[in-house]
Specification:
Blueprint lengths: L2 H19 L9 H9 L10 H5 L5 E2 L7 E4 L9 E10 L2 E7 L7 E9 L8 E6 L4 E2 L4 E7 L8 H16 L1
Antiparallel strand pairs: 1-8, 2-3, 2-8, 3-4, 4-5, 5-6, 6-7, 6-8
Length: 172
């Protein structure tokens, strides 16, 4: 066996061993499945498809409401977009978001600040709290608007705990 083949097999075995030692409770959340879980909006696929998929199924608009999902456009840095649920409306230009996979890969962030920085005040451009900076990030992100649902989880923590429990059961 050549060294390259041996190295590739060793890397594969090592990676499998590391995955086996990861605790079942270490759920890695993507934004879309997490948003679907906590918002009750039954859309599947990448975040950048949610806005068009919502047409005719869910009301959409540019006014933030608790339980609505803010749909971010695709950008060079976010090729598949992003979705985040509004957990609190602070003012007409500020909300708190609950979302996954933003500041820390695969992690959930609850009640983080997002500010409308669009010229028209229509939520078409936002700044979002970014963990490593401990405040609003330096980047502004284009959005498509809000997708509304009347089925948002009343208790986000309970919904996340239920999903984590289901992951642990499936892993065992």
């Amino acid at each position: 066996m050549k060294f390259g083949g041996f190295a590739a097999r060793f890397a594969l075995v090592a990676a499998c061993g590391l995955m086996a030692t990861t605790p079942a409770s270490a759920t890695f959340w993507q934004c879309a499945p997490f948003a679907r879980l906590i918002s009750g909006i039954k859309i599947h696929g990448n975040a950048n498809t949610w806005w068009s998929q919502a047409a005719g199924k869910y009301d959409r608009g540019d006014t933030p409401k608790v339980g609505a999902v803010l749909a971010f456009n695709s950008t060079a840095r976010m090729r598949v977009g992003h979705v985040a649920m509004v957990s609190k409306v602070v003012s007409d230009r500020e909300v708190l978001l609950t979302h996954a996979n933003w500041s820390r890969r695969g992690q959930v962030e609850r009640n983080v600040r997002a500010v409308d920085v669009s010229d028209k005040g229509d939520w078409s451009l936002v700044k979002v709290w970014y963990g490593p900076q401990g405040g609003l990030g330096t980047s502004s992100y284009p959005t498509k608007g809000f997708i509304y649902s009347d089925h948002a989880a009343a208790d986000v923590d309970a919904a996340v705990a239920a999903a984590d429990s289901a992951d642990q059961t499936a892993a065992s």
